[in-house]
Amino acid sequence: MAEYQIVTDSTTDISLEMIAELGVHVIPLCYIMEGKTLHNIPGGGELDEHTFYEKLRGGETSTTAQINTEEFLQQFTPILEAGKDVLYLAFSSGLSGTCQSAMIAKQELQEKFPDRRVEVFDTLCASMGEGLLVYHAAKLQKAGKDLDEVLSWLQENVLHLCHWFTVDDLNHLKRGGRVSAATALVGTMLGIKPVLHVDNEGHLINISKVRGRKQSLDALVKKMEETAIEPGGQTVFISHGDCLEDAQYVAEQIREKMGTADIRINFIGPVIGAHSGPGTVALFFLGSER
What we know:
The protein is of the alpha/beta class and 290 residues long. It has two domains: 4-158, 3-Layer(aba) Sandwich (Rossmann fold), CATH 3.40.50; 160-286, 2-Layer Sandwich (Hypothetical Protein Tm841, Chain: A,domain 3), CATH 3.30.1180. The chain contains eleven helices and 13 strands. α5 (127-142) runs antiparallel to α6. It is globular, with a radius of gyration of 19 Å.
């Protein structure tokens, strides 16, 4: 059985400790703030997550850039030269062109390394939803599953990876074109909080609106209650835009209502956070449908 390296990108928002635990290779995406190009590296990079969100709260804006084909060539080539195959789990094609860049790199590398494999899997996921898919793939690899077995599991389960988000500030979604200026203005005045998810095409979709922060957090838990598969035995991920107490509140509700023991919490990194803003809370689990 050929050795293979699982590769992903920093939009997974998983911690340095988990990256080490799983043995995955993470490619950093970039973002631009205050005229500087910075790297979204797990653990903070040039700017730690709290400082990033404080700058957003202070009125700074941030833009993001996808990984280009040349970067993929540089990242994949040493792995192939070492005699390993590559399984790359990509940030959703519904949100970024990163996956397409990886596909171009794959074609070039397969000509250069005809005896090696490069598999690009579109996760149709974002943030720790992508991270949770990577987590399951890496656990299967550690259990001795070969590349084809892991790919098969991913294909069967990718549309069971549920993402539920709420944001605290509609203006960040307005800047990204997710809501209109009028919706952002009225929603902010009335304390309206959207509940969003990532659909089967990997797009971020506004599903419903609730009034008040606590109600929006409770709505995430309710969605999990409705669709989670055997929630008590699952590993559940929660990511947050510098609002740890709100993430912990969601985790406690899940423990109380569904008996879930293994819940991992981490920051939403700057690439996702540039679009969702401070105060975002996102919940990820395996369910009957997205």
